[in-house]
Amino acid sequence: MTAAGEPTGRELTAPRDRERQADVTASRSRLPVSVVAVSAAFGVLVVAAAYTAGRLGQAGTSWADRTYWAGQLLILAPVAARMLSRRSLSGNETVTLVVVLTVAEYLVKVCYSPAAFTYADELMHWRTATDIIQTGHLFTPNNLLPVSPYYPGLEEVTTALAAVTGLSVYVSGLIVAGIAHLLFVSILFVLFRYVSGSHRVAGVALLLYASESLFSSFDSMFVYQTLALPFFGLTVLATYRLAAPRATGHRAGWFTVAVLSAGATVVTHHVTSYLLVATLELVTLGALLARDRRLAAWASVLALVSAAAFGAWLVFVAPSTVGYLEPVIQGALQAFRGLLPGGHHPAPSPASAANGPLENQALAATAVLIMSVLVPVGWWQAWRRYRHQPWVVAFAIGAVSWYVIVAVRLFVTNGSELAGRASTFVFLPAGFIAALAVIRLTDNSLRWLVIRAGLRRAPLVIAGAVAAALALVLNGLVNGWPPYWERLPGPYQVAGAERSVGPEQIASAGWALAVLGPGQRFATDEGDLPVLGSYGDQDTVGDDGPLYTSPTLTPAAAQLIRAQSIGFVLVDLRLSEMLPASGQYFPVDPGLGTYKHPLPRAGLAKFNRLPGVARIYDAGNIVVYDLRGAAFYGS
Amino acid sequence: MGRSQADVAATALVAVLACVAAAAGAPGPVMTVLGVALFAAPGYLLGQLLTGSRTAGLERVAVMTALALVVPILGGLLLNVAGVPLHRPGWLGLLAGMTLAADTALFARRRAARAGRADRTATRVPATGIQAVPAGSAVPGSGVPGSGVPGSAVPGLPAADLAAPGGPRPGRPTTGWHLVVFAVAIVVAAAAVGLAATGAARQSQAHFTQLWLSPQRPGAHTLSMGVTNDEGSATSYRLVLRRGGQVIGTWNLTLGDGRTWQRQVPYTGKQVVAAGLYRQPDLTHPYRYVSVGPGSGAGGS
Questions:
Q1: Domain map of chain B by residue range?
Q2: Of residues A37, A247, A260, nearest to B70 (C-beta)
Q3: pLDDT tens figures, A112-122
Q4: Class level of CATH domain A498-634
Q5: What is the pLDDT of residue A450?
């Protein structure tokens, strides 16, 4: 065993030799990688056609939905089939398959909103980037996501690219997010390739990683985590390279790379930088268990460097991060306490649209079952063949987190969202360990079974593996983003996600910024909030439902206005015409998932009758009221 | 200057050209090409300086790309601390300065490495190919010391294997036929994005007109009144302004799509000022309505 965890001797070279032998002896595939690329490109085209149909009013039809999934299958099925096929696959071909999958899914994301950012989180970072361009300085307050300006890495890169090329923030952001996403996947491939010694294991691990629910959405959007991930990966890769026994004389360069990438992680995203430290500690633990002192030393040194960097950033630059993350952490801890014996279970959440249709839940259950079976098989494989390999030991320990997020998903209130957000990091070790299982199952055990049975069932076995992989990846798409109720772009939806971003919202927000100035305290609804906070740069209030639901201004609503210093109310009259697509009219909404009828019109129109309230803007559907002259505002 | 320094010269040229083009107000496409090249240059050079030829294929590209992204992040922080505005001159200065500095360092390192090789040749150190280069010394052409392991820093794996992630170990050359197929894939993917963009542009959206009447700050003695036409075509309106119920102004407006009409209206704060916008030919029902003033509510429907 080497210091870097690279296997020596019979124990690990044997499977690699077998793989290489299989590569040499296996016949060439009738499905060249170039054809897979064309299939994926046509898949993107079919998805784009489905999106266009949705925009032309067919978003609710089953044929448009089926067209979307046909396009996705054109992308996914050939990649999975070629990756899992036992026919010859070179390193370059494996890389190409991974790149084709990543790029195709990113283009699908681009096709969803090809003209401007529409996802709420993307709008938040668009605001920060726009502020940097307008002011020329970092750390300009962002009312929509106050912590964003203190982690400006994404916006710095985007504004720098926009400045030197003359491209718009949107186009620059698409380029930066796309490159960052592909870069992260590439770095993971290199790392998995080094650790396993097999490009096939690395490819399958990436295929499984692509099944995490945020792979095609949150990890490739214009959000800070997207850019932080490749720096996270590069720091870990540099750790591997630093610990290589023949790296003497090379280490200064790799150490510099590690420090620079760790620093960039810290400046770009808070959670990723914390998880970088945790990952390096996990590698240290794996190295200690495998008695690899050199790797343990380098990993712990880089963990200390990363911890010092984010500690300093937290104290001197971004102390508000604590307040931002505290509610999330407390909520998670409270939910976990509820799982313990004698713990208090929080009140169950009302039925939410996020729970999805039965078939989506069935697919999610299937995917959980597949991964839950694969991980123990991977552990067994790791124990048999890799137990002295520190990186595999670290991944095996990290893969335990898979069962933690399964428990969170099953038993914690709103656990699906928490589990989904964690899956970006949980699938790193879990995907690798599961890949060991997949390779074992498709190569050795099944080959043995086939030989023993005297049957030629290898194609069936491979088909089963491909079907399982497709179930995993499709689950990531079905239960990822966009939600099923906004799978296709289309006409305006009340309190939706990206379909709530329309010209009237953008025009109203632009008017608010131009006429009222930035930073006014605004009450608004779920669908209008991201637009008003980003394009309008207004300080929006999330828990303002009581202002809209009652036909009269109740004392509680007046108290809310005073307590929150709400100077303006944006009323979207369509709240009285449609049920909320997301299940909630307001960001903080006690009525989540319980609405049977749209909001009463009288609740929205009451501001016309309130003394001292000025109706200052009217665009038809959207009306803005100025509360600052009313008696209840200041009293 | 030998071939080994061609990249140094090219990146330096990109840095200079980008600055000159920006100063001269070059057309957008020119700035886009030069800007992308300038954006990538520091990453390439830092990658050469820090890891050199010890990485190959996909790993090398990944490291260089990541370093190219690191430069504006950490460099932007330094500019901000130094009080340099993060506008085009600041970013150009950072990227061009970083490129030229890295060029200088790489140039000097390669010259030193070449001189070292010449010394070893003069002292008749046997050169038996790349395996004879001791760890910690340079691989010819890389300019980076410590490249004693050709393509591999990790034992236990053949060098060819380690170069494999994206590297030159296909074992199966890409034929012209495959290249054509890949080109088709790129064209189809571009068509897909074009189709999506066209669909988004043609998506039927509800058309609307904006009317506003607002004090631009509390206690102001004027109101900003305006109309913006977003109906998708030229539209004719009648705008009626009332103070205390009395008509004080009427305007017949015809606005093209996307056009705005604005006025400042005196405002004392003692009387209700209201504006009704009628979309011609219907002069009976107000199309839009706004109202500012003390006393009773704003009105409207």
A1: 1-121, 208-292
A2: A260
A3: 999 999 999 99
A4: alpha beta
A5: 58
